[in-house]
Amino acid sequence: MRGATHAPWAVCAAAVVLAATGCGGGGGDSGSGNGSGVLSSSWGDPQNPLEPANTNEVQGGKVLDMIFRGLKRYNPRTGAAEDMLASKIDTSDSKNFTITVKDGWTFSNGEAVTAHSFVDAWNYGASLKNNQRNAYFFGYIEGYDKTHPDSGAQSATTLSGLKVVDDHTFTVKLTQKFSTFPDTLGYVAFAPLPRAFFDHHAAWIKKPIGNGPYRVQSYAKGSQMSLRTWDGYPGADKAANGGVDLKVYTDNNTAYTDLMAGNLDLVDDVPAAQLKNVKGDLGDRYLNTPAGIIQTLAFPYYDKKWNKNGSEKVRKGLSMAINRDQITNTIFHKTRTPATDWTSPVLGKEGGYDAGLCGEACQYRPADAKKLIKEGGGLPGGQVRITYNADTGSHKEWVDAVCNSINNSLGNDKACVGNPVGTFADFRNQITQKKMSGPFRAGWQMDYPLIQNFLQPLYYTNASSNDGKWSDKNFDKLINQANQETDTSKAVGLFQNAEKVVRDTMAAIPLWYQNGSAGWSDRLSNVALNPFSVPVYNEIKVS
After folding, report:
1. Residues in CB range of 352: below 8 A, 6 or more apart
2. pLDDT band at 35 (very low <50, low <70, confident <90, very high)
């Protein structure tokens, strides 16, 4: 998942991207640009219209990463934030920044990308009336409390901390020091927007216009989005193919079957049911690489049944009733690793990953689990229903396995059941409408390698991806202190202290760390996954 990212320091985690070359195959569809072939890839409909400040989930994020380029771009191999449209970003106090935008960049409709393109976009994203899911990203820019108050009507429509100096220069004033604020600016919420977005908004929503290496050709919801290479793209990362057809699948097994039948070129999430066969099926046309992804079970704290005295014992007991080792070995064939904290091993120890931080609460202890749940007042309503989307990610298999483990631990074959929702979009809509009545799947895909990115967006009060609405004043205080700390090691320590608050209340149950996986047809070569487990589409070659 995508979420808010604010931190005054950065850690460059070592993230290895493996590229592989497939054998040449039949000719591809024709397309414009440097590459002649168009590839097809599995996909799911995004939850919301593809506005940069309104997209904080993976499927929509894939598209925005293809059609937009921001001030920074995260290196597809290391995750490091590198200048893209930023010529330079200057500061003398880590609170006031002067940003210079490179000349010569345009949107695919011919409009120039200017300082106004960024300032107008950020003001739109921060405005309460626009109801943008990623508004929280702009929370440390001066004036956010006026454009997006916690309660009541907004008293301003623009952020007072943003000022346009000239066509290629603007200034940003923050409410507190953030020494590496520039490193957050590669996230798509900070993307520039053309005037067409504001002047012809309905038309733009139907066919988004960006400044990236691809442009949207067409989109039929529930069926396919077609993107084609933009010939006029001025960046160095031009597409090596003619375009990408993103095909909507409601079942990853069907996508895999289509791949094997030659009807699909790329599957970027190999279903669990095929993991035992995939090496034999695809050989060197299969990738399984570490990624900054963690799977958890979140809880609806807006439901009093899960937010009362003793509830933390029930959540801890449920965690101890799950046999993570067995599930990751039998269901996922070691493409997942049992989680022992709430971050990811890709951060490394210096970056904040703390193996074993969860302690006994993440160990399989069925007797203790049963005792704790009883002490906490028992399962609300006598049963746990784990809600998940049934269209992607092979979630049914692991949810069933988790429930079987819980049922066995409690000696009750009806203690836990799965509660599937047909599509990812419907699943996300139910979550944002606060319709969850029990634990629900909450996978998190990092935005870049910072421990802050695994904590603040998910658990900070009213944060953009805090779907369960958990809140703890001590956690928030520690996060604020960490964000103001410019010394990396001290900041990491404060974030880890905040993570211990998550642990002590079992705010969410960590399940496992996830590898990225992909399989592709023999038409493709130079296939790679970035550290966020997303295909590096622009580098893929089609024969």
Report:
1. 11, 343, 450, 451, 454, 492, 495, 496, 499
2. low
To the nearest whole percent, how much of the chain has pLDDT over 70?
Answer: 93
Identify whether the C-beta of residue 409 lies closer than 8 Å to the C-beta of residue 317: no
436 Cβ contact list (under 8 Å, min separation 6) = 300, 303, 387, 430, 467, 468
Please report the pLDDT score of residue 80 as a whole number.
82
In 3D space, the residue among 327, 329, 306, 302 whose CA is nearest the CA of residue 316 turns out to be 306
Distance, in Å, from the CA atom of 137 to the CA atom of 355, rounded to the nearest integer, reads 29
Token output for 58: 């993976």
**Separation CA 294–CA 343 (nearest Å):** 7
Q: Using H for helix, E for strand and C for coil, what is the string for 117-181?
A: HHHHHHHHHHCHHHCCCCHHHHCCECCHHHHCCCCCCCCCCCCCCEEEEECCEEEEEECCCCCCH
Contacts of residue 46, defined as CB under 8 A and 6 or more positions apart, other chains included, come to 55, 57, 59, 60, 63, 425
As a whole number of angstroms, the distance between CA 239 and CA 12 comes to 26
Taking the C-alpha atoms of residue 296 and residue 293, their distance in angstroms, rounded to an integer, is 10
pLDDT exceeds cutoff 60 at 252: yes
Secondary structure of the chain: what % helix, strand, coil (to 5)? 35, 20, 45
Other CB atoms within 10 Å distance of the CB of residue 407 = 17
The CA distances from residue 11 to 75, 242, 495, 500, in Å, are 13, 35, 13, 20
Residue 105 CA: distances (Å) to CA of 90, 192, 194, 210: 21, 11, 12, 11
The model's pTM is 0.77
Q: Which of 454, 240, 467 is nearest to 345 (CA)?
A: 454
Structure tokens at 163: 């000022």
Residue written as token pair 């101890």: 320
CA distance 542 to 36: 7
Q: Is the pLDDT of residue 373 over 50?
A: yes
Q: Is residue 500 a contact partner of residue 327, using CB atoms and an 8 Å limit?
A: no
Neighbours of 409 (CB within 10 A): 24
Cβ neighbors of 185 (< 8 A, separation 6 or more) are 70, 71, 72, 81, 86, 89
Per DSSP, the residues of 277-336 read THHHHHTTSEEEEEEEEEEEEE--TTSGGGSSTTHHHHHHHHHHT--HHHHHHHTSTTSE
For 413, the token pair is: 């074959």
Q: Alpha-carbon Rg of the chain, whole angstroms?
A: 23
- Weakest-pLDDT range from 23-32, 414-423, 494-503: 23-32
